[in-house]
Amino acid sequence: MAAVLLIGTAAVIAGGNILWTCDPAIAKQLFTLHTVQVPVDLIRFHDIWGPTVGSVEGQEWKNHRKIINYGFGPSTLPIVWEESIHQTETLIDRWARDEFVVKSPRTWMSRIALHVIAGIFFDTRMDWKDTESSNTNNDSYTSSLPNAILTIMLHLGVLFVTPRWLLGKLPFEPFQKTNKAFVDFTNYMLELRAKVLEKSDEVSTKRSRTMLESIVVAGSTNLSDPTVQPLSKESILGNIFFMMMAGHETAGNTLGFALLLLAVHPDSQNQVQQEVDDVLGERPKSDWSVETDYRALQKGYLGAVLTETLRLYHPVQFVWRTNVAETTVYDSTGDSHVVPANTLFCVNFAAAFSNPSTWPQAKISSAKRADLHFSRALDFNPTKWVHTREVTDNPTHWPFGQGGRTCPGKAMAQIEMVAVLATLLKNYSIELVITEDVLKACGDDHRIARERTRDDAIRRLEDDVEANLTIAMLKDLPIRLRGRFDETSP
């Protein structure tokens, strides 16, 4: 019979050989100990085309990781910065017209992330109309590359759980759409891969390459590095898809929650805007620099906002690890615990990053906290991160992971998110939408209506948050843009 043993903030179920933990000291060891690995059997559902960097271990993983790292070279980062600014400008054109209501910030931010990824991976500039239409200029495909990418991202669940042979045979629309997108995306990737290989010598000498070019060349030749082994075309496609999926989900989620938190905390939003004004001044966006402006904003209050968002609403709520041999771990009190081999560990990011003994809560009365449903949004405090986030060995906060499997796209994600918020908040503010019903119930008193809307948003940022493998709002929480310098704005 299974016995449950509590280890500080961890619990071991001896019979089931499972350990759940939110202890940051234990979590760090699980990311760095050589006896602890990723349980690849649990995540092979990602292997839609072939094995990827996320689903292999040992020497095979090292080979995949080296090839992936070629795609995240320094030459890519300025392109990320420029494309993020461009895509945000085009988004503002849509949001700022006719009191447009943004019902689901996460959906729009995920789309921006997808647009940026398309530019970095394929040198394809996605327009908003590209992902709202199935039109294509290529008669051999049923959808454009942007539309195929979007359809796949919107139907990942269908793609993960449905066998390939069955996907196109089911008569239901989601399955049919997903199958068409899958077939088209596969054909596009094979075609692009073939074009890169035809000019591999030329591509390998280019100073600036797309991520697809870098991964294809690195995965198909040894680049004078005998430790790199070529990958199959299935693994090339699989890794490209895996990087796209991870970047789309994490950046979109984080930006979506950041917008909501800034709408709920206007004082923090004002601090971001003041910093953006100080750093960027009145220079045109074409003069904004990833080398200087990004670094200043990332190290300042804007970067702190993103770090605090990742603490409170990390896009990945938990991760799995397993040990291949008996392992001794030490909890936060220094006590040691021997964990038997083949234990399945679950690291709970959400609990680790919100433990009040590690992260002091805002000074709010118990009654008020209870009235606002003990929402984590109450404890949003970016100030704690200013000038403290660059410590590489932070024992309590590791939003991009630790050890060898630290996210390879960390720099890309940070640049993208800083660029989006800086561009958005330079000339606009984000505000919650006050409904006519709320305004009427408050006797047309805008101040009371704003307070009531804010309190309701804080509650919903707890009650309406769904946490499975990733995190998302279950219901729409609408916002809108307001011109910062528009005196006629309410």
TrEMBL record:
Q: Does the keyword Signal apply?
A: yes
UniProt entry keywords in alphabetical sequence: Heme, Iron, Metal-binding, Monooxygenase, Oxidoreductase, Signal
Cofactor(s) required, per the database record: heme
Please report which protein family the annotation says this sequence is part of.
Answer: Belongs to the cytochrome P450 family.
Q: What is this protein called?
A: Cytochrome P450
Entry-linked InterPro entries: Cyt_P450 (IPR001128), Cyt_P450_CS (IPR017972), Cyt_P450_E_grp-I (IPR002401), Cyt_P450_sf (IPR036396), Cytochrome_P450_monoxygenase (IPR050121)
In alphabetical order, the GO MF annotations are: heme binding; iron ion binding; monooxygenase activity; oxidoreductase activity, acting on paired donors, with incorporation or reduction of molecular oxygen
PANTHER family from the UniProt entry: CYTOCHROME P450, CYTOCHROME P450 12A4, MITOCHONDRIAL-RELATED
Residues the entry annotates as binding heme: C407
Point out the signal peptide segment.
Answer: 1-27
